[in-house]
Amino acid sequence: MTDTNLEDLPSADLAMIQRMIPHRYPFLFIDKVRDIRVGESAVGIKNVTINEPHFQGHFPAKPVMPGVMIVEAMAQTAGVLISQTLDLIDREPLVYFMTMDKFRFRKMVVPGDQLELHVRVIRGHGKIWKLWGEGKVDGAVASSGEFSAMIDVPKENK
After folding, report:
1. Ranges of each domain in the chain
2. Residue 132 belongs to what H/E stretch?
3. CA 101 and chain centroid, separation
């Protein structure tokens, strides 16, 4: 554990993100989380680059970030928010998807875009959380929907 005061941590860089969620390259889809409001909301940042492995096949002539990866990036942003809210930094929490509802994809996300992942808590406490997420590029909504997740902390880290 650290002496980090969670109320004084309005953003998380890549090093802090890796202390809060278990994801690593090539499955870590957020570069930064900002505007963190403990227990309420956060904004994840994903800098989309052509170097990402999924663009080799999705699609070689017209690369588009797969919708499922946008949703995963939202969930990772939510994982950081929840980890901070529950004081799980350095406790190796695991975050599991439970549901995805009402998702819509309105705009393609392509290399060169900066994807902002706005997440807010609908309901959350303990292990089960329900959230709303919106992915935006240049202020335009690219995707949105509700999702829920379960947070689990290994016994040795509780």
Report:
1. 6-157
2. strand 128-137
3. 16
Two tokens, residue 26:
């090539």
**Mean of all residue pLDDT scores within the chain:** 93
Strand order in the sheet with 140-152: 32-37, 41-47, 114-125, 128-137, 140-152, 94-105
Which residues are catalytic, by number? Answer: 58
Q: Which helix (H) or strand (E) holds 98?
A: strand 94-105
Residue 125 bridge partners (DSSP) = 128
- Assigned fold of 6-157: Thiol Ester Dehydrase; Chain A (3.10.129)
Sequence-distant (6+) residues with CB within 8 A of 58 are 64, 65, 66
Return the number of other C-beta atoms located less than 10 Å from residue 100's C-beta.
16
Whether 32 has a pLDDT exceeding 90, the answer reads: yes
**For 112-154, how does the pLDDT look when each residue is reduced to its tens digit (9 = 90+)?**
999 999 999 999 988 999 999 999 999 999 999 999 999 998 8
